[in-house]
Amino acid sequence: MPEMPEVEALAQDLRGRLDGRAITKIHVPQFSALKTYDPPLAAIEGALVDGVSRHGKFLDIEASGLHLVLHLARAGWVRWKDELPALPPRPSQKSTLAVRVVLDEQDGVSPGLDITEAGTKKSLALYLVRDPMDVPGVASLGPDPLTLDFTRDVLAAILEQEGRKQIKGVLRHQGTIAGIGNAYSDEILHAARMSPFKPANSLTDDELTTLYDAVRSTLGDAVERSSGLAASELKKEKKTNMAVHGRTGEKCPVCGDVVREVSFADSSLQYCATCQTGGKPLADRRMSKLLK
User: Where is the FPG-type domain (predicted)?
Assistant: First the structure.
């Protein structure tokens, strides 16, 4: 799933490609992806792109006062195309193409964006709005963890308010802190040497400082590594720099212990027992049931 560092890099890449270009047409072969009807998509046709920005994990393409806001969900991605087919895409259950953004012609060809979504669970969302705050998911976002006003005190207040909730869930809840998902919450907690099940309001002052520093450094480093990369390179960059996420069974790069996993109904987390839980493996109910 694209998280804040990848969406920030996508925004940077598209900012350079789209600046001053006109959007001539938007096709939505996966019609369920379109979540708004007013203004209609035709309203943005012919509009010049003024900028590309990010709100949490939402991508925002602004054109002539309108905002084309995109949430890539779990399996979505944006692909730049130097030349798009002349014929509009047709709806197809076999195709991963959800949205196509066609730009004005240059040298007789029309470049643009193909927005795809793999898998059978279709959650990708496209909104055309006059104000990004008209998108419910954007309006309900918590503070961005890389802005200057996200201080240690802000994090302390969030954790205290969340009470006994597990720290992993607090970090990845978009209404609490914007932009951190499953992958980077694993990485942050590994860097902080903290159990994902630790209650949010149980941190000591030293642990709070460690967690705050881990949030800023883990996300900041990821944004810095991703900056300047084309969209086609971002997935590889993310995967190759993970310490524990997605690395079940491999060696922890810090201590050499095996990376372990806890599975849930529709997701999983990875962690190092030596680094994060005092050497004690966390209970994994799904695996326990399989072993019975």
Answer: 243-277
Alpha carbon 207 to its chain centroid, in Å, reads 26
CA quadruple 43, 45, 50, 54: dihedral sign: positive
Q: Read off the pTM.
A: 0.91
pLDDT tens digits, 273-292? 999 999 999 988 655 443 33
- Give me the DSSP letters along the chain: ---HHHHHHHHHHHHHHHTTPEEEEEE-SSGGGB---SS-GGGGTTEEEEEEEEETTEEEEEETTEEEEEE-TTTEEEEEESS--SSPPPP-SS--EEEEEEEPPBTTB--EEEEEE-SS----EEEEESSGGGSHHHHT----TTSTT--HHHHHHHHHHHTTSBHHHHHH-TTTSSS--HHHHHHHHHHTT--TTSBGGG--HHHHHHHHHHHHHHHHHHHHHHTT--HHHHHHHHHHT-SSTT-TTSBPTTT-PBEEEEE-SS-EEEEEHHHHSTTPPPP-HHHHHHH-
Cα–Cα distance for residue pair 2/211, rounded to 1 Å = 22
Q: How many CB atoms lie within 10 A of CB 104?
A: 15
pLDDT, tens digit, for every residue of 19-33?
989 999 999 999 999
Q: Which two tokens stand for residue 61?
A: 């393409």
